[in-house]
Amino acid sequence: MESGDTGGVTVHSAILIKAKERYLTGGHEPGWKAVPTNDPEVQDAANHAVKSIQKRSNSLSPYELLEVLLAKAKVIEDYARFELLVKLRRGIKEEKFRVEVNKYIEGKFFLNQFEQDHS
What are the beta bridge partners of residue 88? Predict the structure, then answer.
């Protein structure tokens, strides 16, 4: 194999394989798994959600990610789905949101849904 040759495995499929290995335990049925809130993939998904919420907001004050409070993930076909509870700041106000973010095999994120959490 030449340097950089992955034996027919593309970078994109390698990402999916890594995601499956990382978020699913061997031999178990796919489903939601708790993941560390400080995991880089979780942080990237949370940051994407904040940017997407900001774009949809008519507020002049930008949202700032304070903390990922809870994180779950599952792999569905060719993408990973994250369900997160995030704490955001907008101006002096702190708010919690439940967000659902997909990460596709090519590395792009998409915010599926979000709602303010009043707990």
Answer: 65, 95
Domains of the chain in sequence order: 11-117 (3.10.450.10)
- Residue 37 CA, chain-centre distance (Å), reads 10
**Which residues face 97 on adjacent strands?**
86, 116
Average pLDDT over residues 33-62: 93
The reported pLDDT for the residue numbered 28 is: 46
Is pLDDT above 80 for 117? yes
